[in-house]
């Protein structure tokens, strides 16, 4: 089937994310990928500024990750996790526990980031029931957040600036504090308001759900790390479960292995995904403390009643263990610092705001981006970007060279001027 035929079938039958089925945006045909680059049919190689939605941190076709998948295929591709276990799942759990903040030594393997957050919220609700507080059924969070597109996850996304406003009448009504201040902002004033809100609703709050240090799809907004101890202190004071959603921020993206480290705190539940497998296969996890696990077990069900069909998929676990081994070498630290230095060039772009944190760079315009024009402008500079709302941003693979990062900055500049 030729390129035109493939794209015609795609346009007629495939529903792409965040798009209309009746009037879809153009899709470009990818024919291969290696290192930091993807090959677009009719265009050629371009630097992938998105790292496949922030997941391909080691780049494409990494020898160690390829070998992990091939080796596991020789043993088994999948087996149910109910009543059975296998070495890859045990290996990935051991590695996660060794890397995660202290105390997070119980691991629930999910099959996507949204499911991991759903599981974390269910853990918090069951923990409260196990503690004899079944009336605690709401969650405290902050504005500007994003936690996924399934229903409980949507309920803790920003109710005004997010994309899920049309479901407001159906979603559980959660409690939203003000957006945390930017680095260098007035943390004390924000903290006073957050503490007061928590105290007002303490008797109905099961848990606190936040993205530490960087709010991702809600706007690529860094905030002061000094806010993280406030979340911890409020959770401890009121007996709520602190959940850190590190689907986007985990595994070095913000400059520390986990963003929680920037505030020197550990949550009760940690959600990870995206880069967990280096972008090879879908896998996520919710890690919790022994205390949370005991609370869940003390609830009337006596068990966490959640079990995805592909939970603990051996192929995904094998490549995740290999990805975590790469991270354990620490080489990512210098890579992220080098990328951060290169992304500082974004501050020269004339825009409403520019934000750089770790291996994340975002340019905010004073209007919604003309996505088609901005995408074409970026491609003219040899880079692939995926703007949204008023943002043109990059979260590239850590294997990007200095030349790749310079190209990304040029592409973002061109996209901002065109969009």
UniProtKB/TrEMBL annotation:
Site entry (Participates in the substrate recognition with KAPA and in a stacking interaction with the adenine ring of SAM), positions: 18
GO molecular function per UniProt: adenosylmethionine-8-amino-7-oxononanoate transaminase activity; pyridoxal phosphate binding
**Binding-site positions, substrate:** 53, 146, 274, 307, 386
UniProt key word Plastid: no
Q: Where in the cell is it found?
A: Cytoplasm
CC per GO annotation:
cytoplasm
Keyword list, A-Z = Aminotransferase, Biotin biosynthesis, Cytoplasm, Pyridoxal phosphate, S-adenosyl-L-methionine, Transferase
Q: What are the names of the required cofactors?
A: pyridoxal 5'-phosphate
Which major enzyme category is it?
transferase
Q: Where does pyridoxal 5'-phosphate bind?
A: 113-114, 245, 308-309
Q: Which residues carry this modification: N6-(pyridoxal phosphate)lysine?
A: 274
Annotated InterPro entries: Aminotrans_3 (IPR005814), Aminotrans_3_PPA_site (IPR049704), BioA (IPR005815), PyrdxlP-dep_Trfase (IPR015424), PyrdxlP-dep_Trfase_major (IPR015421), PyrdxlP-dep_Trfase_small (IPR015422)
Q: How does it assemble?
A: Homodimer.
Family in the record: Belongs to the class-III pyridoxal-phosphate-dependent aminotransferase family. BioA subfamily.
* Function per UniProt: Catalyzes the transfer of the alpha-amino group from S-adenosyl-L-methionine (SAM) to 7-keto-8-aminopelargonic acid (KAPA) to form 7,8-diaminopelargonic acid (DAPA). It is the only aminotransferase known to utilize SAM as an amino donor.
Write down what this protein is called: Adenosylmethionine-8-amino-7-oxononanoate aminotransferase
Which gene codes for it? bioA
